[in-house]
Amino acid sequence: xxxxxxxxxxxxxxxxxxxxxxRFGQMNAGQMICHCTDQLRMAFGExxxxxxxxxxxxxxxxxxxxxETLPTVDGLDQIAGEGTKPGELERDKQILVDYLNRxxxxxxxxxxxxxxYYDEIGKKQWERLVIYHLNHHxxxxxx
Length: 143
Fold this sequence. Notes:
By secondary structure, this protein is an all-alpha fold. It has five helices and no strands.
């Protein structure tokens, strides 16, 4: 991810406001921010109890190419009350930015956690997932 792309994402994150309404889906802005942070926490191995999930990878790839919503990893569904609970939005946005910066400062030798769908993946694969995920959810709230 280029510095410019990272700064663009940070600006979009910081522009999210409590009054933003979802264009699709059921999460509110605070839930979305925490959900996106949880993806980075997952990459760093900070979420306990995640297990490999068997999903149809062809279907997942096709959904991604159509820019459709992908199924949420078990244990991180904000609507079901899972994942990190939203607090104060400005603080939660800063936490997401801090995790994004930490991710970007990591190098190719950083050992990341497995992904429940994709298993063992490296930084480049995690980076593609992070960018896709952030773009999807920021667009969900018009950002």
